[in-house]
């Protein structure tokens, strides 16, 4: 596929690791129109495969996933892909915020969040 739009080549890759389809759709809609290429996977094992192909600039990482906890995955990302920024997202685990930051997450978003909150978490990490 040939791409003649030069601004598309500069798009930052964002990976959503989230098993709830509605949440993935919502995040995609919120980020639509931004200079970002958004993709998503629904498990940690799919995330590992994705990272091996092309590590994203930013990962939006849910905590409770079918095959494990996002909190435990933070150290894997930081060890193997230190340039990738991590935004931990969680709804029921407000106490997970401190652990996520201690483990190396760049920021934490508590569900539910809005467009402004999402942008304010992502924007500083893109620069």
Our estimate of the beta-strand percent is 15-25%
**Main sheet specs:** 5 strands, parallel
CATH topology call of one domain:
Rossmann fold
- The N- to C-terminal Cα distance equals 28 Å
> What is the CATH superfamily classification of one domain?
Response regulator
SSE class: alpha/beta
Number of strands: 7
* Morphology call: globular
What oligomeric state best describes the polypeptide chains here? single chain
Tell me the series of helices and strands, N- to C-terminal: HEHEHEEEHEHEH
C-alpha Rg, in Å? 14 Å
Name given to the CATH architecture of one domain = 3-Layer(aba) Sandwich
Q: For the residues shown, what is the average pLDDT? A: 89
Task: Outline the low-pLDDT stretches.
Answer: 1-8
Order of neighbouring strands in the sheet with most strands: 2-1-3-6-7
Number of helices: 6
Instruction: Report the top-level CATH class of one domain.
Output: Alpha Beta
State the share of residues found in helices, binned by percent: 40-55%
Describe the fold and architecture.
With 127 residues, the chain is of the alpha/beta class. It has a domain at 10-64 and 74-89: Rossmann fold (3-Layer(aba) Sandwich), CATH 3.40.50. It has 6 helices and 7 strands, in the order αβαβαβββαβαβα. It has helices spanning 6-9, 21-31, 44-53, 70-80, 96-103, 115-126; strands at 12-17, 36-41, 58-62, 64-65, 68-69, 85-90, 107-110. The strands form 2 sheets. It has a 5-stranded parallel sheet, with helices on both faces. Strands 4-5 form a two-stranded antiparallel sheet. Helix 4 packs parallel to helix 5. The longest helix is centred in the C-terminal third of the chain and has 12 residues, at 115-126. The two termini are 28 Å apart. Residues 1-8 have low confidence and may be disordered.
């Amino acid at each position: 596929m040939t791409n003649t739009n030069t601004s598309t080549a500069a798009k930052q890759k964002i990976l959503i690791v989230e098993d709830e389809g509605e949440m993935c759709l919502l995040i995609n809609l919120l980020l639509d129109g931004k200079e970002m290429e958004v993709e998503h996977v629904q498990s940690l094992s799919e995330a590992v495969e994705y990272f091996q192909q092309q590590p994203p600039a930013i990962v939006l990482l849910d905590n409770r996933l079918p095959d494990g906890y996002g909190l435990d995955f933070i150290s894997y990302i930081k060890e193997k892909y230190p340039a990738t920024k991590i935004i931990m997202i969680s709804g029921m685990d407000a106490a997970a915020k401190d652990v996520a930051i201690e483990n190396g997450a760049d920021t934490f978003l508590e569900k539910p969040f809005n467009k402004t909150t999402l942008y304010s978490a992502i924007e500083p990490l893109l620069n």
